Amino acid sequence: MIDATPQLPYCQVAEVVAVSETSRLAALEQAGLVHPRADAVTAPLFSSAGFFLPADKVQVKYEMLRAHLTGHVPVTAAAAAHGYSRAAFYLVAAAFAETGMTGLLDERRGRRGPVKLGPEITEFIRSAPPASGAALAGQVEARFGVVLHRRTIERARAR
Predict the structure, then answer these.
(1) pTM of the predicted model as reported, rounded to 2 decimal places
(2) Whose CA is closest to 113, among 157, 156, 149?
(3) In whole angstroms, what is the distance from residue 137 CA to residue 124 CA?
(4) 9, 85, 120, 157: which has the highest count of C-beta atoms within 10 A?
(5) pLDDT in tens, 3-34
(6) d(CA 92, CA 58)
(7) CA 122, CA 142: separation in Å to the nearest integer?
(8) Can you give the pLDDT at residue 42?
């Protein structure tokens, strides 16, 4: 026996909602994803209002790579049309090749963590009996010869 009941070929998962350019810009600004040179983007895709927004840094980077890889636009021309230098193009391409779409996000600036706080010192701080950050900083200095701020100690204990 054949089931003749009509079946939907798809399932609606999410509703598409139109977002104003103003609210999109606000969201990009809050996330730190505004293209610093949006006015320098001259690629034809970004010339009309709509989906393609020159202020969307991630979208501009993606379209820059796509223009070169699928549109066979030379690197210098693709970079210039999207508001980037040739050197920046290669950095974006390398980041994209290494981590995919997340590579299009800018890396966090600054240090990646405490410099002086090694695994041995961290273990000492976590296993020490309850004490103030200043008291533990003194103990760390006496034992390891490393001067730490009390807040560094407090943060290490909170992790």
Answers:
(1) 0.61
(2) 156
(3) 11
(4) 157
(5) 555 666 666 666 777 788 899 999 999 999 99
(6) 10
(7) 15
(8) 95
pLDDT of residue 27: 92
Torsions phi, psi for 40 (to 5 deg): -90, -5
Question: Cα separation of 64 and 3, whole Å?
Answer: 49
CA atoms of 91 and 103, how far apart (whole Å)? 10
Please name which of 30, 116, 105 lies closest in space to residue 62, comparing C-alpha atoms.
105
Q: How far apart are CA 84 and CA 75, in angstroms?
A: 10
Q: Which amino acid is at 78?
A: A
Q: d(Cα 156, Cα 122) in Å, to the nearest integer?
A: 7
Calpha distance 149→129 (Å, rounded): 18
Q: How far apart are CA 76 and CA 86, in angstroms?
A: 5
Residues 23-52, mean pLDDT to the nearest whole number:
91
Query: With contact defined as beta carbons under 8 Å apart, do 60 and 82 qualify?
Result: yes
Q: Which residue has the tokens 């230098």?
A: 85
Torsion of CA 117, 119, 124, 126, to 10 degrees: 90
